[in-house]
Amino acid sequence: MIHIVFNEPDIDVISKAMALDESLQGEVMLIRDDYAVGPVTDIYAQEGIAGRKDWWRMLLKGTESENAVDEGKVNDELVFSRLTDALLNDESEVVWIWAAQNKHDVCGYYWLVSQLASFQSRIFILYLNNLPFINDKGHIFYPEWLSQIPPREFLKAKKLARPVTISEFEVDADEWRKITESGWMVRLLEGGKKITGFEVSYYDEGLDELISAEFQKASKIISNFQSRKKNESTGDVFLLWRLKTLIYSERYDALGELKGAKDFEIKKKTSAGPV
Predict the structure, then answer these.
(1) Taking the model in full, what pTM does it have?
(2) N or C terminus of the chain with fewer C-beta within 10 Å?
(3) Which is nearest to 185 in space by CA: 36, 6, 61?
(4) What is the phi/psi pair of residue 72, to 5°?
(5) 173 shares its domain with 209
(6) Range of the domain at 216
(7) How does DSSP classify residue 195?
(8) Is 266 helix (H, G, I), strand (E, B) or coil?
(9) What does the mean pLDDT of the chain come to?
């Protein structure tokens, strides 16, 4: 059995769940890229893959993770190759795709499942969509991320595993194709597996609302944005890039080097007019 997850913290919780239940034993593979943002046109072609990597290089420039792309820290194509090799070399091998109800997991699912139709009947989905779980305090909650679920609760969640149907392989691949051809750079989850696209500037207005007339660290603005917009927020790298883009619009003042989120401060120009 191979478990697929889309967030690094999920590896730990799945591993702990496997320690509690031998039937869950298997390898855990991680799809790292965040397909909820950025270019996904021709995402399976070399030109599309290279274009996406160049986009991430631009976002990461000047940050502590500036060399992450060239160091191969995110290489989903290699993970996918390992996965398909395992399926081809062992006809009894099966794949369990774990996804919680968030845009990151769902977009990752679309990217992955659209390439696995030839292994139909061996690909299982566990989509924890609007399902209640019990947290460590004994309270019922609805997790947005797998890592929020206590390991013991995965013993119940495993009962939800079901094969991805032939219809799903067709419909979900078609839905992902539409998404990749749309040109949208920001993708949000409406509910179920419905993804809606928006312009690259989607988060700018929310960030602008948090930029005051006094200098604040970019890291503080990003943290406040993510805490206030939990359901619609995105990763700090994307938000940092949008803050830098706002500064280039000359409606704001900045102190420090425009590198990492802790390297500079930002405030609105006193003469700036309305958005």
Answers:
(1) 0.92
(2) C
(3) 36
(4) 75, 25
(5) no
(6) 204-268
(7) E
(8) strand
(9) 93
